[in-house]
Structure formats: C-alpha cells, structure tokens
Amino acid sequence: MQMAPVVGAYEANQDAVREAIARAQADVVVVPELATSGYVFESPEEARAVARPATEALAPWVDAAAAAGCIVAGGFAELDGDVLYNSAAIVNASGVLARYRKLHLWDREKLFFTPGDAFPPVVETAVGRLGLCVCFDIEFPEVVRGLALRGAELICVPTNWPDEGRPEGERPMEVVRAMAAASSSRVFIAAADRCGRERGVDWVGGSSLLAPSGFPLAGARASAEPQLLRAPVDLAEARDKRISERNDVLADRRVDVY
Asked: Mean per-residue pLDDT for 48-66?
C-alpha cells in the first residue's frame, strides 16, 4: 500500500493504515516506514509526540489484520522508555509475530532515533517465511543476503524514499537497488513506499513487488499518488536458488575465502 502519512497526525495515520489493510484484500499487506507518524520531523520533541510503545502502536494493526484475515508488515515510531526507534513489525490476528528496530538510519533520522542492535527477523507464517527490514537497510547487501540465508522467501520493506532526481526515462535508483537485491538473493521483495509532499520533501513513490528474478510483478515506476499494488505470488519459487544448471546464488558463495 503506497500511502501519504501526515507528519504529527498519529490518529489519522492509524485510521489510514486500518483502511488500507481492509482495502487490500491480500494475504500479506505492507505499509510504509513510519506509517503512524510521518517522517519530516522538526525536532526530537515532535518525533516523541507521535511515538508510542510497540504494544500500543501495533494493537490497531492486530485488530485490522484479524478483521481482514491477513498478515500486516509496516513501520512505526516506537517509544521505549526515553528512547525512540524507527521500528517495524509483522503482525497477524494472533498478535505481533516480529518486531525490528532499523539498523541503518538515513540522514536526519540520526537526530531523532537510536539505531537498533539486532539483525532483522525471519518468521514462519501460514503463507511462508517472511523477512523484514526498513528502507535504507535494503541498500546493504549483507541484510538481504542474511535474510535469504535465514530462509526468507518474501522480504517486506516499509520505506520512505526521498526523491533525489534521476535522468529522464530512468527508474528511481532506490527501485533499481531493490530489484538487484531480489535478483542477487532470489527472493521476493515487497517495498511499500510513501508518496506526497511533506515539508518540502518529495518522495519517490516507488512501491514495488519484485520477483526472485528481480523484475517487477507490480509497481516499480514512480507515482506521486497513493496506490494499491497487488500480485499473486508462489513463495516456493524463492526456495530455488539456482540460476543455471551449475550455479546457485547461495551454494556458490566462497565462504572459504570471504
């Protein structure tokens, strides 16, 4: 679900997430990074005002997932004591399946958030093995490869990609990196970007559902508008890491050398 969260509007953003989950009609629904808070904060105090303990922030998602019969992955501003994290979670009707704190903070995020200190999770679900990371994380090959080595078949990536420009006719570089990551580790990737202008920042709007080949099943073209991207996938395809008769992207790693 490509959405346009409003900075500082916690309740309205939660309402929008719930509506998105209900509308999606999918087994797995992914919403953007910091979907409950917006992104372009002016101060740590403003970020803190829309951060919530994980239990409080995720309870509406659990309820919405139960009503829709789905799994939800997305990002939220987490308050843990006095510490703020740019966090994400995977939930279903039974509750929170996994919670993750973003390892690689982008630019001004470092003014507000503390980086996490644990590798992203992979969880077994009714539909397959789901991995989770957030935005800038996907630009680190170690993250996607590590998730693939841990058995992830679909990596859910809540993201806020700021639009930094590109030559006419080219895909956004952020999408190109995600495509390369999917292909390099032979995994599905569902990247839910945000859109709209927020305090002078434009967003790529590059939400993408990518196959293990790296090619898009849906999205992967910039759009300034909210949009729902859907595609049927067979996650079993991500278990096959062969790329030729004699090559396998995981088995061919030279662990004796690097």
From this structure: 98
From 70, 102, 109, 195, the catalytic residue: 102
Fold of 10-245: Nitrilase/N-carbamoyl-D-aminoacid amidohydrolase (3.60.110)
Active site annotation includes 241: no
Note if 70 is an active site residue: no
List pLDDT tens digits, range 167-213: 999 999 999 999 999 999 999 999 999 999 999 999 999 999 999 99
Domain boundaries, the chain: 10-245
The active-site residue out of 70, 133, 135, 156 is 135
State which amino acid sits at residue 101: R
The string over 240-252, giving b where at least 16 C-beta atoms fall within 10 Å of a residue's C-beta and e elsewhere, is: ebeeeeeeebeee
Average pLDDT, the chain: 97
> Is 139 annotated as catalytic?
no
pLDDT of residue 134: 98
Lookup: tokens for 151: 């058995």
